[in-house]
From TrEMBL:
It comes from the Bacteria. Transmembrane segments: none annotated. PANTHER family: BACILLIREDOXIN BRXA, UPF0403 PROTEIN YQIW-RELATED. It holds the Pfam family Disulph_isomer. Belongs to the bacilliredoxin family. The lineage of its organism: Bacteria, Pseudomonadati, Bacteroidota, Flavobacteriia, Flavobacteriales. This is BrxA/BrxB family bacilliredoxin.
Amino acid sequence: MYPEEMVKPMRAELSDAGFEELYSAGAVENAIAKSGTTLVVVNSVCGCAARNARPGAKTSLDGEKKPDHLVTVFAGVDKEAVDAARGFMFPFPPSSPSIALFKDGELVHMLERHHIEGRPAELIAENLKDAYAEFC
């Protein structure tokens, strides 16, 4: 587990952009069960989260359509919440960072680490905007 002082600025990147931080399995279950669309970002301390995932997720919200709910869990810190979120992302294997879009509790779009790592934030944002156009 990473110390809170280390991850605080990484958490803030998303919470300052309107993402609700989730810390428990119950909070994750409640968030995903909400009607409408929910974007879940599995945040991480890795470089691809800093360069690609967080900026891509934030930029994706600049478009006309966007998810109804924005939430995040932090891998390596919020074990219970991360495990719960990953349970909803089955059959995809656990990866961090990752970004999932749910509609009425069902997984409809998934970006795994291999879709994020090495790709510019703008490409990730465009991928998410395409999913929003279809599902939001």
